[in-house]
Amino acid sequence: MALCLICGLFTLRFSTFINAVLSLTLLVCRGYSQEAPTKQIVALLGDDVVLPCSLERPVDVSDLQLEWARTDLIPGFIYVWEKNKENVGMKQPSYVGRTSLSSDKLNHGDVSLTLSKVQLSDEGLYRCFIPQLGQRSYVHLIVGSASTPVIKVMSNDSSRVVLQCESAGWYPEPELLWLDGEGNLLSAGPTETLRGPDDLYTVSSRVTVEKRHSNSITCRVQQRNTNQSRETHKHVPGNNDSHSETNYFIISPSSCAV
Ligand SMILES: *[C@@H]1O[C@H](CO)[C@@H](O)[C@H](O)[C@H]1NC(C)=O
Ligand SMILES: *[C@@H]1O[C@H](CO)[C@@H](O)[C@H](O)[C@H]1NC(C)=O
Ligand SMILES: *[C@@H]1O[C@H](CO)[C@@H](O)[C@H](O)[C@H]1NC(C)=O
What we know:
5-stranded antiparallel β-sheet; 3 helices; disulfide bond; Ig-like_dom; signaling receptor binding; membrane
């Protein structure tokens, strides 16, 4: 009997607690839903990029105060527009000379910021804020770097060719794939990754190709977060033995060892 009473009390307490959590969650969600969802923008190292921010209605905002800031730095201002011109007073030093607004666009409610010569350290969350309108929106800038791989012939005898693929200057760390002429994945040696003092990655890998018949081998280097992919092809002529009609196959150092 006493146990049931405790159970009942507990259940009552618990449901009150859940209700409180639910209404708190609703409150918090409502608060956020008034803001536009964070936009993701990918820029490549050295590029110029536009961080979008605009009002729904094309009203002239050039007389208002406009603020662009990095949310992870304090004060983090990278562009402040005040009294119809830029106020460079509190600007983050690394952004000096690299940010601009278009006054033509400000006349139509478009506060999009151009950031030039993008650096790896520019990656982060940016806030566009118009204090007088209480208008706030966020852009997440992802910075990448990519370069075309180079294939070298490491050895070449009558039955097989060993190819090496190398690609320098990637960010973030990419993956390297070998493909045959039909786009099938080849098993190859492990990808070696080096990181330079500039924070960029160099990847390389070797594959052994049997010369059963002529083939076009592709080395593809790709990075998912930045949606970058670069590839290079190498033609491997087949030799003419008696087995030239049979299907070619590919072996790799790793599968040999197993
Ligand atoms: C990724 O890149 C491909 C080719 O460049 C493009 O067609 C595709 O729309 C991109 N996807 C995203 C999510 O950016
Ligand atoms: C391997 O050597 C042969 C003979 O010199 C040449 O014809 C062939 O193109 C070479 N293969 C590659 C992949 O360079
Ligand atoms: C190689 O194959 C081609 C086409 O099948 C043929 O014409 C040529 O005579 C062959 N060469 C040798 C050295 O067997």
